[in-house]
Amino acid sequence: MAPIPDFPSKARAADAARILIVGGGAGGLQLATRLGSTLGRRGLAQIVLVDRLPTHFWKPLLHEAASGHRDPASHTIEYAAQAKRHGFEFVQGELRAVDRARRIATIGAVVDQDGTQIVPQREMDYHDLVLAVGSVTNFFNVPGAARHALPLEHVGHAEDFRKKFLAACAKVNHLADAPAALPTALPAIQPPTQPARPVCINVIGAGATGVELAAALRHAVGQLAAYRFRALDPERDVRIRLIEGAPRVLPVLDPRISGRTQAQLERLHVEVLTGTRVARVEEEAIVTSSGERLPADMTIWAAGVAGPAMLRSIDGLALSASNQVIVTDTLQTPDDPHMFAFGDCAACPSGTSSAYLPPRAQVAHQQAVYLSQAFAQRLAGKPVAGFVFRDAGTVVSLGQSGALYQADLRVSARAVIVDGPAAAGLYRLLYRKHLSGVHGIGRTLLQTLGQLLHSYGRPSIKLH
Ligand SMILES: Cc1cc2nc3c(=O)[nH]c(=O)nc-3n(C[C@H](O)[C@H](O)[C@H](O)COP(=O)(O)OP(=O)(O)OC[C@H]3O[C@@H](n4cnc5c(N)ncnc54)[C@H](O)[C@@H]3O)c2cc1C
């Protein structure tokens, strides 16, 4: 590749072509950081990252935030600070519309908590637009699901869920602790009464997200009982059900992983219902397709994702059945070379089958690395090869009960499965790998050390 001339001047950056990246998630933040540190710093392109939120939180940790095992405040990254450090600009706001003919993106107004407008709606021109807006929950039009089931798409959802979960545990603890009403003279010590019925939490969908959430919640109940809700009996007072329409949990993984995961979940007293389709979600129950009514104090939907609805408003954009932007192997839309999409919001050919690549952080990360190199090659007038995904395997965490890792090696028809401490270590490494892509190895090590020191002597779960 021809050397990229070093242009440190800001004057050059002012008239450099603008690459507008929308969405600072697992993929978008990596891409903005890489492009900012290279093309942006040298004034070869103006890199702008747009996100509706001011901070980044790595989505695969959401189930840990929802269960209270991870405090989001210690794990968020300020986009503005990252932008200053890495040579890109950050603009807060939600992408509302795109005029592809004029190459203009409309960014919605920013409002505060009371709805007061802070920044009005703006228009931004671009040379290249990269959509990295992730995915939203797919309720598959199940009646009542969007209304009564909680999604898990961002930190706000995780916090909402955690507070409701904590309140439900507090309530059942109070009932278990309350003295029995006695008509006659009070004895010195009164026995606790049993609550009318346990708290019922239903997790719909036993893919990786549902499995990880159910396991994390089961551990969380035990820890809350140990620290704060002393009258709560985790197994008697809190029922956690994991409901899956397919005949086994983790249906896209090897059946051996499904078997081991289900056995582990049952040891944790998670009730696993496979081959069970949800027909309707109500405020206090879910109804299965066989007509069974399962009580529900909280229902969380982890049964699938789709591209955000706003993609439908972009004129002429070809979308998949799951509402994702259809792209070629260079991650460009087929009819507009100035528009790119990657990560969860993109339907990218897998190369090996007719299916699209799955919505996973690993895919988003590899595509971000690919795109950062592809933009540099384009600027240098070099040809750009297509993206090829290299599957490094799948790891599913069961919290303190460990993790399971599956690798599909080309040399063997049978997947390799690893569990125990090796798989658990691998799971922890994934987040650190993401951080090192964003901060560099040195800063990630320092941050990890800081987080370890911060957690020393503190409860292993958020108690309020
Ligand atoms: C609980 C949970 C556990 C998971 N565990 C794993 C795992 O173990 N391994 C794995 O590989 N994957 C896992 N995933 C999937 C993984 O999180 C996603 O595949 C990955 O985050 C996709 O990255 P992305 O950059 O495409 O989108 P995201 O990371 O979702 O980022 C999208 C960004 O776009 C922003 N945005 C959205 N709409 C707009 C708009 N209109 N305007 C401006 N900004 C917008 C959002 O604020 C967000 O910052 C998990 C997901 C969940 C929910």
UniProtKB/TrEMBL annotation:
SUPFAM superfamilies: FAD/NAD(P)-binding domain. Keywords: FAD, Flavoprotein, Oxidoreductase. Pfam families: Pyr_redox_2. GO terms for biological process: aerobic electron transport chain. Residues 18-368 form the FAD/NAD(P)-binding domain. Belongs to the NADH dehydrogenase family. This is NAD(P)/FAD-dependent oxidoreductase.
